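hey
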């Protein structure tokens, strides 16, 4: 059992997928969890290997290490601030890579993959624990494959497309839609630098795929309204006319009705003058797969995004 206590990054993905390939079970721990919560999750899951991102997360382990007798190793991803740190159970990532190079035998890795069976436990996804201690939801290898297969049928994943991953990978939504499925179709997975830089990274990457919870889509919407209110009278007027033209078109497309020529022509003009620039400013000019999940979203908000040319 491997537990990962880190923000999203490529190392999170490496450890998760390595565990799946080697017949181990992986579980994510939210970086906002306390030391007490970490001890509970490690003990409840039977974790033997804990991955921590940095000094801040390492401190949680050190605070409760005596309460986790089954934990054998702690792997530290970022050594910043820990150059003089030493602990019998702790290992820095570079040292782990060195061990891997010394024991390099691809045949062992391939043999472990071949032993996997559909009913094997693959992932534990812990509930929020709002009515008591969190409970580990057991997902098998078959569950993961079924989720990816459904995603491929229902969503436009494409080879070479860019994906931005930023929601916690502890949750199955992000892991399935922003990690597992994009990789099997050879999309590129980009990790946000931090939760605070998501909007900047969105503009930088202009991804083809982006999944977020309703609260994030609401924040983007609020930002646009503030920008519009702070613009000139001409800018505000043009923005309002463009969104209204987009809303008229969206009214037809969302009902699967043909768009009248006049409505389509009006939208084309305002899209050329206003909406394309807006999407470029938001980093959504290439977005073909905008997804919202994990909570209800307002139908009016969905229609607004369709109106500006961002179908959710």
């Amino acid at each position: 059992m491997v537990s990962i206590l880190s923000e999203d990054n490529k190392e999170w993905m490496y450890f998760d997928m390595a565990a799946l390939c080697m017949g181990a079970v992986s579980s994510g721990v939210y970086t906002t969890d306390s030391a007490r919560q970490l001890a509970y999750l490690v003990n409840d899951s039977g974790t033997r290997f804990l991955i921590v991102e940095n000094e801040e997360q390492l401190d949680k382990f050190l605070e409760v290490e005596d309460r986790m007798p089954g934990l054998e190793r702690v792997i530290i991803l970022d050594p910043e601030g820990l150059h003089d740190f030493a602990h019998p159970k702790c290992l820095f990532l570079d040292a782990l890579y060195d061990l891997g190079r010394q024991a390099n035998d691809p045949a062992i890795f391939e043999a472990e993959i071949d032993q996997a069976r559909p009913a094997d436990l693959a992932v534990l996804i812990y509930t929020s624990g709002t009515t008591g201690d969190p409970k580990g939801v057991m997902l098998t290898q078959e569950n993961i494959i079924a989720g990816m297969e459904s995603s491929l049928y229902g969503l436009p994943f494409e080879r070479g497309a860019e994906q931005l991953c930023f929601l916690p990978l502890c949750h199955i939504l992000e892991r399935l839609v922003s990690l597992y499925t994009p990789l099997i179709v050879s999309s590129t997975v980009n990790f946000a630098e931090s939760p605070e830089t998501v909007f900047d990274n969105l503009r930088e990457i202009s991804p083809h795929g982006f999944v977020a919870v309703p609260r994030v889509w609401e924040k983007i919407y609020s930002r646009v309204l503030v920008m519009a209110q702070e613009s000139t009278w001409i800018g505000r007027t043009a923005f309002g006319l463009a969104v209204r033209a987009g809303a008229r078109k969206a009214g037809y497309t969302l009902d699967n009705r043909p768009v009248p020529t006049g409505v389509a022509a009006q939208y084309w003009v305002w899209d050329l003058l206003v909406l394309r620039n807006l999407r470029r400013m938001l980093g959504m000019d290439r977005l073909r797969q905008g997804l919202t999940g994990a909570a209800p979203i307002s139908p009016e908000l969905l229609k607004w995004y369709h109106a500006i040319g961002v179908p959710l």
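The mean pLDDT is 91. The domain at 2-146 is CATH 3.40.50.980 (Rossmann fold).
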